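Bumping with the actual sequence this time:
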Amino acid sequence: MVETIIIFLIIGLIVTGILISPVLTKRRRNRLKQRPFPLLWDSTIENNLSIYPRLSPIERRRLQGHVQVFLAEKQFIGCQGLQVTEEMKLTIAAVACLLLLNERGEYFPKLRSILIYPSTYFVHETIATGNYVVEERRVARLGESWVNDQVVVSWEQVQQDTRNWRDGHNVVLHEFAHQLDQEDGKAEGVPILPRKSDYHNWSQVMTKEYQQLCHHVQQGIKTVMDSYGATNPAEFFAVATETFFEKPHQLLNHHPALYELLQRYYQLDPVQWA
């Protein structure tokens, strides 16, 4: 009898914890968002993110709130002796949180750490080349997103991308788009959508646009999106996200269906910032 009561008490505590935890998290995040945003932080973001002054006052305040939550919940780790500065953290957080600007996400729930390398870094990849032959290669990288808990970026590349906002390349937007895609544990170019009915339209538009990009790349035709998006559907979504934020006019003019799809997903219209 006593054991049964204890079991029910434990179950009750577990259930209560599950029910209360999201509420407590939301309250804590709301408190963080309501804190005054330091003037030094504001000027740092403005100096490092050219799109920042073009946001509406409401969007700027919302982004500031997201940045405060992001900095409180994620850890930044310098690699190869790099000393992580406040500027690095603020710049990466501000760009990443553009993807969440209109409450579109849960602050990348699986992400725990952002690893920052000074510049290009190298990893060893093991690749099966056929006939039971395995080849190990040393590959240069500028960033990557892990399904479990990490994003890796090159600070040199982050700086280059923020200085050249309109070139359609942005390692932070790219890798954090992967994080959105990987929230369900898979990287397949399909993030979690608000409604089940959204998946059919997503599949139709994305498949058509991805196949078109692959065809144009094969034919050597100039494209609005980087050719790396033809690698696979997951990379296509990440590259499309970079293009949506950095080259909105071109994407809207040449790929209106894709622009509209991303506009609904991110609940943003970057054309207004141009």
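The tokens above came from a reply further down the thread. Confidence is low (pLDDT under 50) at residues 2-20.
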